[in-house]
C-alpha cells in the first residue's frame, strides 16, 4: 500500500518551501513507517533549502522528530506498531570495525530506508538527513528509531533527535565533563545552550556562557550558566581565565563554527583542558596557530559530530533526566507551529529570538 500524506518540500533552490502531497510506501525489509508527532525546525533544513548541502532537489525537509511506529517491515524484530520513537540520522551496521569495537558513532556503513518516497508525479524525494519528518508519515530504516517512554511531551523530547543532542553530547560525551569542573561555552544558540544544559547535567560547577548577544547570555544563565560574558564588550579569553582562578576552563566548547571563536576556545582552556569544536565551519575557513602554543599545552582538541551520541544509550537516558526534572527540554521549545508555518519559522531563525520552533503534525 502507498500512503498519501501532507509534507513540507523544498522543490528548488532558494524558493519558499511548499506543502505537497507525497507518496510513502509501506515498509520493506529493515524499514519502519512512522506517524510523525512533532518535528523541530533546524538550521540544517534551511541549508538544504538553500542548496548548501547538495543539489538533490526536491528535499523532504525535517529531521528532528518523534513519532509512533505505524508498521514495520517483515524482518524487523526490535519495534512494534504503537512504539513511541525518536528518529536519528542513520542506522548503524553493527558489523564494521567501529561497530565491532563498541564505537558505533563512527560506523562507516550507516544506512537509511531503501525504498523511496515520491511526489505524486513519481519524482523521488531526498529526505533531509535520511529522515524527512515534516510530514504526516515518513519511511526510515528501523535502526533509525529509538524507542522511548511515551508519557512525555513529544515536542520536547523530539529535540534530542538533532541540535539539543549535538550540544548535550558535546559536553557529556566528547568533552567528558566531570563533576566540579569548569566549562565555558562560546556561542549560545540552540546548540551552545544545550551544551550548557549538558554541562550542568554532568555536574560542572562553573559554567561560563559567551555570546555577542546579551539576550543569548541571559537565556544561557536561565538554563544553567553560572556566569555570562558578552564578547563584544570583554575579551572572552581574559574573562574566562579570571573566572577560573587564572587557569582557563577545564572544557571549552565552541558552538559557533568560526576561526576567531575557535582561537578563543584554544586559549581559554586550562593547560590540561579540553577544547570541543561542535560549531560547523565552512570549507573556506582556516586558522593559523603558533605550533609552540599547541606544543606548550596538554589536554586535547576534539570535534563533536552529532554529540558523539549513541541514540540507543543517550535518548532514553536523557528522556529519564527530563522526566526527573534534571534537564529542562521544555525551555528549548519556543513555539509550537503547524506544517504550514515552516517557511515563516525559517525567517524567524535570523531574528535570534527562537531556540526552536516545533511543528506539531
Ligand atoms: N562570538 C560569540 N558568539 C557568537 C559569535 C561570536 N563571534 N558569532 C555568533 N555568535 C553566536 C550567535 O549570537 C548565536 O547566539 O552564536 C550563536 C549561534 O547560534 P545559532 O545561529 O542559533 O546556531 P546553533 O543552532 O546553535 O548552531 C551553532 O553548531 O550545529 C552547528 O551548524 C551549526 O555552526 C552552527 C553551530
Ligand atoms: Zn538538525
Ligand atoms: Zn558499523
From TrEMBL:
Any one GO molecular-function label of the UniProt entry: mycothiol-dependent formaldehyde dehydrogenase activity
Matches recorded under PROSITE patterns: ADH_ZINC
Similarity comment text for this entry: Belongs to the zinc-containing alcohol dehydrogenase family.
EC number: 1.1.1.306
Keyword Metal-binding recorded: yes
InterPro entries per the UniProt record, alphabetical: ADH-like_C (IPR013149), ADH-like_N (IPR013154), ADH_Zn_CS (IPR002328), ER (IPR020843), GroES-like_sf (IPR011032), MycoS_dep_FDH (IPR017816), NAD(P)-bd_dom_sf (IPR036291)
Protein name: S-(Hydroxymethyl)mycothiol dehydrogenase
Pfam families in alphabetical order: ADH_N, ADH_zinc_N
Keyword terms: Metal-binding, NAD, Oxidoreductase, Zinc
Superkingdom assignment: Bacteria
PANTHER family: ALCOHOL DEHYDROGENASE, ALCOHOL DEHYDROGENASE CLASS-3
Amino acid at each position: 500500500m502507498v500512503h498519501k500524506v501532507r509534507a513540507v518540500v523544498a522543490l528548488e533552490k532558494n524558493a519558499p518551501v511548499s506543502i505537497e502531497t507525497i507518496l510513502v510506501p509501506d515498509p520493506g525489509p529493515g524499514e519502519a513507517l512512522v506517524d510523525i508527532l512533532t518535528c523541530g525546525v533546524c538550521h540544517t533544513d534551511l541549508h538544504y533549502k538553500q542548496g548548501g548541502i547538495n543539489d538533490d532537489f526536491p528535499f523532504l525537509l525535517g529531521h528532528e522528530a518523534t513519532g509512533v511506529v505505524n508498521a514495520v517491515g517483515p524482518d524487523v524484530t526490535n519495534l512494534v506498531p504503537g512504539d513511541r520513537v525518536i528518529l536519528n540520522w542513520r542506522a548503524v551496521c553493527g558489523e564494521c570495525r567501529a561497530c565491532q569495537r563498541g564505537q558505533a558513532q563512527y560506523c562507516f556503513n550507516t544506512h537509511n530506508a531503501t525504498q523511496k518516497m515520491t511526489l505524486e508525479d513519481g519524482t523521488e524525494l531526498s529526505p533531509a538527513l535520511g529522515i524527512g519528518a515534516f510530514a504526516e508519515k515518513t519511511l526510515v530504516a528501523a535502526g533509525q528509531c529509538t524507542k522511548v517512554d511515551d508519557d512525555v511531551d513529544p515536542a520536547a523530547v523530539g529535540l534530542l533527535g538533532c541540535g539539543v543532542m549535538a550540544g548535550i553530547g558535546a559536553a557529556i560525551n566528547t568533552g567528558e565533563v566531570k563533576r566540579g569542573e569548569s566549562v565555558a561555552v562560546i556561542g549560545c544558540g540552540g546548540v551552545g545552550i544545550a551544551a550548557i544544559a549538558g554541562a550542568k547535567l554532568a555536574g560542572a560547577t562553573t559554567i561560563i556562557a559567551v555570546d555577542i548577544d546579551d539576550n543569548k547570555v541571559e537565556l544561557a544563565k536561565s538554563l544553567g550558566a553560572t556566569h555570562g560574558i558578552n564578547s563584544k564588550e570583554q575579551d572572552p579569553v581574559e574573562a574566562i581565565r579570571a573566572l577560573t582562578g587564572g587557569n582557563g576552563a577545564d572544557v571549552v566548547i565552541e558552538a559557533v563554527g568560526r576561526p576567531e571563536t575557535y582561537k578563543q576556545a584554544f586559549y581559554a582552556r586550562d593547560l590540561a583542558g579540553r577544547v570541543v569544536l561542535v560549531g560547523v565551519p565552512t570549507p573556506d575557513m582556516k586558522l593559523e596557530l603558533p605550533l609552540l602554543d599547541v606544543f606548550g599545552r596538554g589536554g586535547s582538541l576534539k570535534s563533536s559530530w552529532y554529540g558523539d551520541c549513541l541514540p540507543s544509550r543517550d535518548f532514553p537516558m536523557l528522556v529519564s533526566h527530563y522526566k526527573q526534572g534534571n534537564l529542562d527540554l521544555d525551555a528549548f521549545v519556543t513555539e509550537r507551529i503547524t506544517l504550514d508555518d515552516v517557511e515563516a519559522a525559517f525567517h524567524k531563525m535570523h531574528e535570534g529570538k527562537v531556540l526552536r520552533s516545533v511543528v506539531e503534525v
